[in-house]
Recover the amino acids of this structure.
């Protein structure tokens, strides 16, 4: 391939810049034109409570507003910042604070630059991995999505967003299309700078390694440094990326000479160093390790995944079938095992969910642990069938889709869905593989579209791009910003922390000094806007040495209407609460508010709408 073809074309740059600009633009819209009867909170997504708190980790001497009052470390400790990616925000903080103007705008701008770095690195990787279909694969990746965006708009036009069961019923159609997080389409993790920069370093470095392995140069020191930083920021992504690298080595069909070995080593060594440093830092706080293992112990939910990616698999099928025909015997055996496993898994899913009455409801949480082990029989059957057909290749067609990409697609899908060992495998967080699964899926879809007959190919390709544009727009406008919300009310309130009702803004002004006990995300808003210590919040997932499940359980018990008054008081005293806050935007049950207002150990300070502020009489001081 000639060198000019390796350049990122102008249209791709226009797409990259446009998508990257969404982050500062969305923050500006939320800041300058929030919905009626709302005010901005400063929290662009729920987890930004962690990121924004970490901006001041160095100037504050590692202070945390989430440190438990019983903690021997006090309010400030290095142990509170044992999660590696928080150090990215710690380094960013002094720069953001030094610039003139709104620091939160620069934070949003940094998120946009991270999105730019990721999309550019992905295009560079695609040029090296699948040059013939690189541009088509990039469009499918950058504008990824399933039917969730279209269905969300149609349900809104039908007036269903106000239905009390909408959030539960729509969940399976939107979770992997629209909800921010490590769910596949890149637009969903633009607000997480440590995701985008880590993936940019890993995938851009992989592209450089592939090129060097084929004799096109070397992995530069700059890329090695980027790979090491990526491994430090997100060890999981580095491990998954190494899986892609290993598959290239094993299934690329090219002889691994000394030049290729050097290129691959120049990727793997800094990545391993970054992962090692990450692991050593995490060991400072065992509670954080426990939190991550608990929260990430899940596989991909099968039915939402099929809904979000179904048309991608249809588009990719010709590439998978063509790759099967030209693949060598050992590759066929692995592909057969993977496809046999997925087929058995799908059958097991339907049987299990039908038996338990969950097929239509789509409650997928327990499925992986129940059916992954029996589905291994399908893997054995698929491998045996492929072994029997291990003879000469069925065609001499050129291999347009590298076998290692197909093995990655089938293998990553099988792993991401699985809970082997009756759930033992879930401790490794297989759902997170979805971030690295989306790219080979788009690569296979792009290659497959080239072999669909017209007009079917154009219809499928157009539908993929159309759904992707709609899902990206809905994800950005309705889920990463408050469009369509009135008075802070609307679908999925727990996912929306960017604005709050004016009643909350007024009540929070009445909070004095001392620890506040409030449900999340109101507690995170208080910690950010008022600077008070809080018992619980999304920030307490990392910024304390108390396991997240323990403090969350205490707060959930406190606001449970069935909890006796004496137990509520004991919880407030144990966690040194000086204030009890019931938010208007994310309201607690009315029965709880009534009992709190009548409690003798509390003094009601103010109430507005569904919000209420109370002071604890003779509260223990921190």
């Amino acid at each position: 391939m000639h060198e000019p073809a390796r350049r990122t074309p102008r249209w791709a740059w226009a797409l990259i810049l446009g998508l990257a600009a969404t982050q500062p633009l969305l923050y500006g819209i939320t800041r300058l034109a929030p919905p009626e009867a709302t005010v901005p909170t400063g929290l662009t997504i729920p987890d930004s409570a962690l990121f924004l708190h970490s901006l001041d980790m160095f100037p504050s001497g590692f202070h945390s507003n989430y440190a438990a009052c019983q903690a021997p470390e006090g309010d400030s400790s290095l142990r509170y910042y044992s999660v590696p990616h928080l150090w990215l925000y710690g380094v960013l903080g002094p720069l953001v604070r030094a610039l003139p103007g709104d620091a939160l705008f620069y934070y949003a701008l940094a998120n946009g630059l991270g999105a730019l770095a990721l999309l550019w690195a992905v295009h560079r990787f695609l040029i090296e991995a699948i040059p013939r279909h690189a541009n088509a694969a990039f469009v499918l990746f950058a504008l990824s999505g399933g039917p969730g965006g279209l269905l969300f708009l149609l349900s809104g036009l039908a007036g269903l967003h106000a239905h009390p069961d909408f959030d539960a019923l729509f969940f399976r159609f939107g979770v992997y299309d629209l909800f921010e997080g490590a769910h596949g389409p890149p637009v969903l993790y633009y607000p997480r700078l440590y995701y985008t920069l880590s993936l940019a370093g890993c995938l851009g470095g992989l592209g450089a390694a592939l090129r060097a392995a084929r004799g096109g140069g070397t992995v530069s020191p700059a890329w090695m440094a980027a790979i090491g930083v990526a491994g430090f920021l997100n060890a999981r992504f580095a491990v998954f990326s190494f899986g892609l690298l290993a598959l290239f080595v094993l299934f690329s069909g090219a002889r691994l000479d000394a030049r290729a070995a050097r290129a691959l080593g120049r990727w793997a060594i800094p990545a391993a160093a970054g992962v090692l440093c990450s692991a050593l830092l995490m060991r400072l706080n065992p509670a954080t390790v426990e939190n991550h293992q608990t929260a990430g112990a899940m596989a991909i939910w099968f039915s939402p995944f099929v809904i979000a990616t179904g048309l991608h698999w249809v588009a990719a099928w010709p590439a998978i079938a063509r790759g099967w025909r030209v693949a060598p015997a050992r590759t066929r055996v692995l592909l057969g095992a993977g496809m046999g496993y997925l087929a058995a898994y799908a059958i097991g899913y339907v049987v299990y969910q039908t038996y338990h009455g969950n097929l239509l409801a789509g409650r997928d949480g327990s499925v992986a642990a129940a059916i992954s082990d029996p589905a291994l029989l399908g893997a054995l059957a698929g491998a045996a069938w492929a072994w029997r057909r291990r003879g000469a290749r069925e065609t001499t067609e050129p291999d347009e889709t590298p076998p290692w990409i197909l093995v990655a697609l089938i293998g990553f899908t099988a792993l991401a869905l699985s809970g082997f060992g009756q759930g033992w495998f879930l401790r490794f967080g297989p759902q997170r593989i979805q971030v690295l699964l989306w790219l080979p899926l788009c690569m296979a879809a792009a290659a497959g579209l080239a072999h669909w007959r017209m007009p079917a190919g154009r219809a499928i390709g157009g539908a993929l791009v159309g759904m992707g544009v709609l899902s990206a727009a809905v994800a950005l406008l309705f889920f990463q910003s408050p469009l369509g919300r009135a008075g802070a009310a609307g679908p999925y309130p727990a996912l929306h922390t960017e604005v709050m009702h004016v009643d909350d803004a007024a009540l929070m002004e009445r909070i004095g000094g001392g620890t506040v006990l409030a449900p999340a995300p109101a507690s995170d808003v208080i910690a950010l806007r008022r600077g008070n210590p809080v018992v619980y919040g999304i920030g307490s997932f990392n910024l304390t040495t108390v396991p997240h499940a323990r403090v969350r359980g205490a707060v959930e018990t406190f606001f449970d209407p069935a909890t006796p008054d004496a137990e509520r008081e004991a919880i407030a005293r144990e966690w040194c609460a000086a204030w009890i806050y019931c938010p208007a935007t994310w309201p607690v049950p009315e029965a709880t508010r009534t009992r709190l207002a009548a409690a003798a150990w509390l003094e009601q300070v103010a109430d507005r709408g569904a919000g209420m502020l109370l002071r604890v009489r003779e509260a223990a001081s921190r």
Summary: The mean pLDDT is 91.
